[in-house]
Specification:
With 479 residues, this protein is an alpha/beta fold. The protein is 63% helix and 8% strand. Strands 5, 6, 7, 8 and 9 form a five-stranded mixed beta sheet that branches. Strands 1-4 form a two-stranded antiparallel sheet. It has a two-stranded antiparallel ribbon with strand order 2-3. Strand 6, helix 17 and strand 7 form a beta-alpha-beta unit. The radius of gyration is 29 Å and the shape is elongated.
């Protein structure tokens, strides 16, 4: 229990600057980011299907709604958050969470590598004052405190594992900075964090078709990005903890928490891989760590903002640099030359696309590349054996799957013009997968008819027979 509480406390410190920064990116009041983090983090921890995973107001979703806020204002954003939550919950209710199994492992590696780079690059903004990079003493002080934080996180576990090293680093560097009155930027320099309890507020937008036309595209994109990042982080958490979560339950809880966040004036959100890694490495494994993290954010808003405002940004930057280093799948670099070239391409492509565009585009591109490669490789495996032992007859015994990518190669295996008058097609080892397979079978039958030859199909499975019959193909083919 103690480990989970301390892990949640540590994670809450890392959540605050991220949520404030993402709110500012979306041109919103920072309190909207903090309210969203509190609601989404606490609700998914209580009702979700993956203990130990941390959700909050995520940057991937903040980027999506920048244009919406600029063009239509905050009320339309809140309505969009509510609608996106409903879409997420519907995804879980339809039990579609299992679709994450369709994501290949190389895509997962590219996902974690890309997000690790994004996490590291995001910290570089704290080395700027306005539009200009820090110089001289402020830069040296920032670098020194970041290095000290990272050193504590790396060295402390060798001495003791009684407390999370990230928590010790944040508090230790904070006390040092406050005690020596070091002139370094703190959390309070980002934004004013004090506020009251979130209040129920129905988004003030007209409930008509025009409103739906405006918010539906943004809500759909938010839901897709949020579900992808959540389910991929879900898989990663499963691997790290060596346990199995409930993806559909997580999707429903995430959707419900976004609906509540939108109704109480908060941003939308999803799982956050950086904060999840902090929680897991700090010993957080139960729902208690997530609940603690969410409740602490609320306490920061209500009572503790003067204290939290004194935490140096350098301490949080150092922790996030460590998170980026631990998140990056360094083993993927070693295997790039050992795995098939297409898998190496997927890893690199997903990493690069994640960094330069967005997660949804990267994952979809990775899946498409992997699927096309699988189809190409599978299509090349179709082959046939021939038997000319019977006089005036040739038997073909094709092996493999007949589908859109293999039909051309399949038809090239036969020679209607030179075959004897009677041809047997033994389909015992042939699987018909789609409409292209049906068309190929029809085409083969027609070619033998034009050549004046008789084609007889035997040993067709019941499934393949049903497939041909539903398509209206002459049942003679299936005998």
């Amino acid at each position: 229990m103690q480990k989970n509480v301390l892990a949640g406390l540590t994670t809450s410190f890392a959540l605050v600057p991220e949520c404030i920064a993402f709110a500012l990116v979306a041109q919103l009041n920072p309190l909207m980011g903090l309210y969203g983090a509190f609601i989404i983090c606490a609700m998914t921890a209580i009702f979700g299907g993956r203990p130990g995973m941390i959700s909050g107001a995520a940057g991937s979703m903040a980027v999506v709604i920048v244009a919406l806020v600029a063009q239509h204002g905050v009320q339309y954003l809140l309505a969009t958050v509510v609608l996106s939550g409903l879409l997420m919950a519907l995804f879980g209710l339809l039990r579609l969470g299992k679709l994450i199994r369709m994501v290949p492992h190389p895509v997962m590696l590219g996902f974690v590598n890309g997000l690790a780079i994004i996490i590291a690059m995001a910290q570089l903004e704290h080395f700027k004052q306005g539009e200009h990079w820090l110089q001289g003493t402020p830069l040296m002080l920032m670098v020194g405190l970041v290095a000290l934080t990272m050193a504590i996180v790396y060295v402390l576990p060798r001495l003791t594992r009684a407390v999370p090293p990230a928590l010790v680093a944040i508090l230790g560097v904070g006390l040092l900075s406050y005690g020596l009155q070091l002139p370094t930027r703190t959390l309070g320099d980002l934004a004013h964090m004090a506020g009251g309890l979130p209040v129920l507020h129905i988004p003030g937008v007209p409930l008509d078709v025009e409103t739906l036309r405006i918010i539906l595209p943004y809500a759909s994109l938010m839901a897709m990005v949020g579900l992808l990042e959540t389910l991929l982080t879900f898989n990663l958490t499963d691997e790290i903890t060596e346990t199995r979560g409930q993806p559909n339950r997580e999707c429903i809880a995430l959707g419900a928490s976004n609906v509540v966040s939108g109704l109480f004036g908060g941003m939308g959100g999803c799982a956050m891989i950086g904060q999840t890694m902090i929680n897991l490495t700090s010993g957080g494994r139960s729902r208690l760590s997530g609940v603690t993290s969410g409740v602490m954010i609320l306490l920061f808003i209500l009572f503790l903002s003067p204290l939290i405002a004194q935490i140096p940004l350098a301490a949080l930057v150092g922790v996030m640099f460590v998170v980026a280093q631990q998140t990056f799948a360094w083993g993927s670099l070693r295997v790039l030359g050992k795995v098939p070239a297409n898998d190496a391409l997927v890893i690199v492509a997903v990493t690069v696309i994640t960094v330069f565009t967005d997660l949804a585009t990267a994952v979809l591109c990775g899946i498409v590349i992997a699927a096309l490669n699988f189809a190409w490789q599978h299509a090349r495996e179709i082959r046939t054996d021939t038997d000319d032992s019977a006089a005036g007859q040739r038997t073909y015994r094709p092996h493999g799957t007949l589908f859109f990518a293999s039909t051309t190669r399949f038809l090239e295996l036969f020679a209607p013009s030179t075959d004897p008058a009677r041809v047997i097609l033994d389909c015992q080892h042939l699987h018909l997968a789609d409409h292209s397979a049906i068309v190929a079978m029809e085409s083969l039958y027609e070619r033998y008819e034009k050549a004046g030859k008789h084609l007889q199909v035997v040993h067709l499975s019941k499934r393949n027979q049903a497939l041909l019959q539903r398509a209206g193909v002459d049942v003679a083919l299936a005998k």
